[in-house]
Amino acid sequence: MIVDAHQHFWKIDRGDYFWMDDSVAKIRRDILAPELTPHADACGIGASIAVQAAPTVAETEFLLEIAAAAPIVKGVVGWVNLESGDAASTLKRLATNPAFKGVRPMLQDIEDTEWVLRPSVMANLAIVADLGLSFDALIQPRHLGVIEGLAAALPDLPIVVDHCAKPVIQGGLDAGETWRRGMSLLAEHDQVFCKISGLANECGEGWDGQSLQPVVDHVLQVFGPERLMWGSDWPVLELAGSYEDWFACARALTAACSTEEQARIFGGTAAKFYRL
Fold it and tell me: Which of 44, 151, 190, 257 could form a disulfide with 261 if both were Cys (CB 3.0 to 4.6 A apart)?
């Protein structure tokens, strides 16, 4: 089964998508499960993970409602205020729903790079691990050392790095030795995984497989197929290209892998990590 390990839904009048300014006007519309269906059918996608797009518990509950009604949505990565004294009770309540798989604070939008290492956040992430849930790291290269510290401090917390940590590759730039070394050090922690997702958006206009190959080659080298998973990042992807084009490109980027290795990247790893 092919799994899209990273996609989003939203309903604009819910009112908590604070990042939706005019720069994303193309995708500033209601996007719900029926709109995913033709893309999933075209690419043979059998399951998806819906990931939070707003920093509210209400949006997480909205996604869980979608998962209950849409058979393709097998899991939800939600949001909980990890600094709150109520986080433990909220996590325990959400975890009673088998579709709730983990949490994702929007670290890229938090000015304090080391926020996730605050004692209150760490204590609540330990509860995430105790509940058998996972942590999606929405990070930029500035966070790589911080997430390595988190992995070392909480070795029982499954972590997946979204979008290959958003390397700075716009216009075909080289991702840089700092990014490569940071990802290599993260990969030394067995509980850390990585998503091949979001790269078309990071590269920007004119993205192609040739531009993205060095990034994918590096994460393949350091994480291996058993800790890599493909995601569309749809509909954010629509700012840079189409679902079908990115899926075909990702297939080409991993063409050197064996059939078994590709099966892991395009389904097996996500199914294992998110306990599908």
Answer: 257
